[in-house]
Amino acid sequence: MVRQLHPEPGRTHTGGSTDGRDTMRIPMRLALKLPKPPAKLAPNRRLVRRLAFATVLVVAAALAVVQLSESPKVRVTAYFPRTVGIYPGSDVRVLGIPVGEVKKITPQGDRVRVELEYDARYKVPEEAKAAIINSSVVSDRYVQLLPVHRGGPVLKSGAVIPEERTAVPVELDRVFDSLRMTADALGPQGANKDGSLSRLLAVGADNLQGQGAQLHQTVEDLSQAVTTLSDGRQDLFGTVRNLQVFTAALAADDADVRSFNDSLAKVAEQLAGERQDLAAAIKHLAAALADVSEFVKQNKKDLTADVKGLANVTNVLVTQRAALQELLEVAPAGLSNLQNAYNPSSGTLDTRSNPEQLHDPAELLCSLLKTTGEKTDCRDLKTLFDSLPKLPAADPLTGAALPVAGTGSMDKTLGGILEART
User: Which residue, among 70, 152, 155, has the nearest Cα to 116 in the 3D structure?
Assistant: First the structure.
């Protein structure tokens, strides 16, 4: 390093002229020797490459961890009539807990399209509703998804929540406008223009003065009535549902109901046209009922006996139910046989009547066989006839012994069905 130093002007060298013109500048050089810098180290290209490759690997691993740590998202679309206080980035909550955010807001005519995105690990019912909530007057608003998922299908990506299932809060400006309009309507420029409202309040105060206890009791009774309705809401709802079912049935059979109403109207019209005849019939019926009443009074004992006899007949029919059933089963065949036995040419029934049956059927048959000249062993016939069932020795209904043919008397009670009279 070399540094040059110059003397100040006007200063002369010894032995020279003292005026400034002959003054000769003598440069002074001061040489300072500094140590030489060390030579630059040659860069290790292989080490640089390794460091760069390691950096790339670390960045890629970090990105992979971030991607894997992020859970999948569910993106749905909801339509609101307005979205005051909602912006992209606003919270999407379930039970007040943030689960996602608003991604995009797009006005579409008289409604607003809002795209919502939330974490897929939070399940939302498939028929969920969306509401814009403001926790206070000045706080940010958020979108609430409700109700809570308690099982069943869940909302999937691409689903749409229609405007019918969304709700927005009433704006404070609208509340103030409604209050202002109410005040104007009830104020001196409205209903109280001529003091009518003031007089109404004064009259109401006079009428209610001293009626606080009764008013309190009325409110309590109304509360009890509402509580009773609330306790019986299941029955009330059941009644409403049954009425709905009844109404639906009437609506389904509307044609039949109309036909029935038309028929009923025709009947009413016909009765109205014949009301004179009906009045005469009722008048005559009253006279007939008087005669029937007199007849019952005069024949009270006989009617009582007849009713008792009818009761006995009914009891017999009940006890002989099996016999009546058998009779109903065999009666068609018996009547058919009776028709076949009738001889229309002579007007008689062609039957073989032998009530006495004096001869043994086996002996008679054996003698008839012997007349043919054949050798017949009648013992075989006896064995055959002995295997046949015996005739009953008593009446199956009464149990009495059967009379011998040609004897006995007439049973006027028909086997005990009718009451015996002397």
Answer: 155
Kindly state the tokens that stand for 41. Answer: 């180290």
Phi first, then psi: what are they for 275, rounded to 5°? -65, -30
Q: Is the peptide bond before 7 cis (omega within 30 degrees of 0)?
A: no
The structure tokens listed for 36 are: 């030489």
Query: What is each CA distance from 317 to 229, 323, 343, 395, 421, in whole angstroms?
Result: 56, 9, 35, 18, 21
Average pLDDT by stretches of 10, the chain with 422 residues: 45 43 43 48 68 82 64 91 92 93 94 94 92 80 93 92 93 84 83 81 86 89 89 85 89 89 90 87 88 89 88 86 89 88 81 63 75 71 73 60 57 62 60
pTM score = 0.36
Query: Tokens 């005559």, residue?
Result: 284
Cα separation, 346 vs 309, in Å, equals 41
Q: According to the 3-state scheme, what is the secondary structure of 382-400? A: HHHHHCCCCCCCECCCCCC
